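Narrative progress, year one. The postdoctoral researcher (J.K.) led the effort to move from monomer predictions toward full complexes, under supervision of the PI. The following entry was the first complex the group processed end to end, covering 591 residues in total.
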Amino acid sequence: MKAWKLRLYVAGVTPKSLEAFANLKKICEEFLKGKYSIEIVDLLKDPKLAKGDQIVAIPTLVRRLPPPLKKIIGDLSNKEKVLVGLNIIKKG
Amino acid sequence: MAKLKSSSGGKYRTLPKVSTGIQGLDEVTLGGLPKGRPTLVCGGAGCGKTVLAMEFLCRGGIQYNEPGVFMAFEEKEKDLADNFASLGFDIPALVKDKKLAIDYVKIERNEIEETGEYDLEGLFVRLLSAIDSIGAKRVVLDTIEALFSGFTNQSILRAELRRIFGWLKDKGITAIITGEKGEHMLTKHGLEEYVADCVIYLDHRVNEQLATRRMKIIKYRGSRHGTSEFPFLIGDAGISVFPITSLLLTCRAYQDRVSSGIKQLDEMLDGKGYYRGTAVLLSGSAGSGKTSVAAQFADSMCEGGKKAIFFSFEESEGQILRNMKSIGLDLQKWIDKGQLKFISNRGSFCGLEAHLVLAHQALDDFRPDAIVMDPITTLLQSGTLDEAKAMIARLLDFAKNNGMTIVATDLTLKGNRGETTEIGISSLCDVWIKLTMEQEGRRKQRLLNILKARGMKHSHEVRNLVISDRGLSIEDIAEYAPSHIETADAPQFTAGGAK
């Protein structure tokens, strides 16, 4: 049972999505080691899934657990912002 | 060198267009929206953008077998379905039949954090998936400006918007993009910069306590279009635009006849009365019996189980009821039975177009078989003659096409009014009956004759209209007394006598 369930939405294998995944992986390994799972959803393969999480921008990272739902868009290159966005560390 | 050869050869051609099916809009745009291109529909809140956009899709699906995708950024599927049920569109059924797909895109600013580069590929994926699911030919984005409040990176947004419109064009999709009115620009975020082929502006303003909606085609690249502002209505069958300039003669010609309500007048009209779905003009001076003849017609239609609507621009409902009662017409009972409806407004109460909008709305709601407009010429005073004539023609067309028979009166003021108004209106009417007051000896009598009656043999006789407390009848004119001719030839006596 992982406490952190993350889902990364991408549209095909693009440099931006690869970069987002690499950035995410690095942050998770550093701060959430052993406590997280990442699911990658490729909207090109399954476009219907975009509606569920109201995906507009790509890439979008969704924190499904723990609640509340959080979304971060972009290539996740700014570590500070990702940590704040995921509520791993508090703002400030 | 060979590349210099022009494929079109400089020959004039208009862009292919797509019918919207919206009443009047195709006329105003001379055929519809540019095919395979985006059109911007903009205006303030509540101006009817969403209605126009949705109706474009519904009619596309129902009438032209062109399914459509509605991408809603503001309203949920359920709300849209509820709102459009009142306009006669069954959204869930259209969705079920794969004529329509709706995707509600929710953008919640405070849920989203931005970090680094991104694009709107998710939106593309959703749009493409919806288009493919029903084979859509039409798309609405209502209103894509919501993106501006959802994302902070303007340069990404603008690039993506440009990409999305280009992409729709490449796919040959006819699209409507809606946009909120901006302060210094047509739209808040300058969408007109991206959608340049056709721009329609909607306006909803309140004039003298009457709300009127207007539409203006601001731009239509590669096509002629009407440049005026066109009033439009949102009724229970969607949008109807009243084109002022373009008038197509497409009235249905009914063969069946309706009685004028006066037996002898029917006899004069080929023995059968008016054609159904035509317009009859009664012109005459004050007191010549125009309103009575018109009311008699309404009464007889109600008697036959039909419905009639009475537009009165000079007298109130109560006055007309009382006056008609004095000649044996009990109109109240038809009102009680729901067959007769009075709409009394002073001519100056509102502008011409508001009158027409009101009239149109009433006709649409009540669906009468007979219409009385007393007097129709009042409407001419509330606009320029050409405009008024065209708009009255439009209203008459609407009535005629729906099989409604119109009896309109026209107050002729001797010498005062130019003949132009009379001629202007009479050419729109199929039957023209003239009523006059003539002095015969020491009393006046009412004379009636038919100036024209299209499509039938009619009497050319001048006869005597008799109004009594038992109703109207028409009699042959009694023998002319010599004194009559004398007085007629000697106006100084008439003038003296009238004083």
